[in-house]
């Protein structure tokens, strides 16, 4: 999860989030180089009295500053499209989890098992135990296995919500009457926090998401305890 005064992203816990972070660094470097070049040219124009009429009117210069931005856009677009297709690709999922947004809590259903569903409410500050996080802890965590492809089916029963877990690179809108799909796979066990990222009413800030990712053996033990 995020730390105080943190400027960058949270540590990636899924292959998709790792790709998104690489793409962010790639794009940020291009933006930094363009900004430095523009700042240098502006400084040069403000501090020198020399002008080169032949240079300013040259067709070669106009050709370069027309083609170069197009090349830069291609260098940004190609990795972006690759990640978009990776995020939309649904391979054979090992598990399907349906998530429904409500005002103001989440409900979950493991569709591969009978009668395995529950609601997840934010834990009030007065009920927090030592070490639990205010406004981020819930009464029922979502337990999922690591290193397995999981299909998320996300919808809503009232207004627009958004199911978001930054560490996993997942942000999918929950829209009434529409079933959205996302892929979830983690590379290491841990507890990952998220929140609703769509303004959905008075208690929008009190819809946390907590995923507990465990090895398959521990997930099977949790299933036996729940069923």
From TrEMBL:
It is found in: Mitochondrion inner membrane. It comes from the Eukaryota. Its main location: mitochondrion. Keywords: Copper, Electron transport, Magnesium, Membrane, Metal-binding, Mitochondrion, Mitochondrion inner membrane, Respiratory chain, Translocase, Transmembrane, Transmembrane helix, Transport. Its cofactor is Cu cation. CDD domains: CcO_II_C. It is a multi-pass membrane protein. The chain crosses the membrane at residues 27-46, 66-85. Residues 1-91 form the Cytochrome oxidase subunit II transmembrane region profile domain. The keyword Nucleotide-binding does not apply. One of its GO terms (biological process) is ATP synthesis coupled electron transport. Gene3D superfamilies: 1.10.287.90, Cupredoxins - blue copper proteins (2.60.40.420). InterPro entries: CcO_II (IPR045187), CcO_II-like_C (IPR002429), CcO_II_C (IPR034210), Copper_CuA (IPR001505), Cupredoxin (IPR008972), Cyt_c_oxidase_su2 (IPR014222), Cyt_c_oxidase_su2_TM_dom (IPR011759), Cyt_c_oxidase_su2_TM_sf (IPR036257). Binds a copper A center. Pfam families: COX2, COX2_TM. It catalyses: 4 Fe(II)-[cytochrome c] + O2 + 8 H(+)(in) = 4 Fe(III)-[cytochrome c] + 2 H2O + 4 H(+)(out). Residues 92-225 form the Cytochrome oxidase subunit II copper A binding domain. GO terms for molecular function: copper ion binding; cytochrome-c oxidase activity; oxidoreductase activity. GO terms for cellular component: mitochondrial inner membrane. Component of the cytochrome c oxidase, the last enzyme in the mitochondrial electron transport chain which drives oxidative phosphorylation. The respiratory chain contains 3 multisubunit complexes succinate dehydrogenase (complex II, CII), ubiquinol-cytochrome c oxidoreductase (cytochrome b-c1 complex, complex III, CIII) and cytochrome c oxidase (complex IV, CIV), that cooperate to transfer electrons derived from NADH and succinate to molecular oxygen, creating an electrochemical gradient over the inner membrane that drives transmembrane transport and the ATP synthase. Belongs to the cytochrome c oxidase subunit 2 family. This is Cytochrome c oxidase subunit 2. It comes from Cheirogaleus medius.
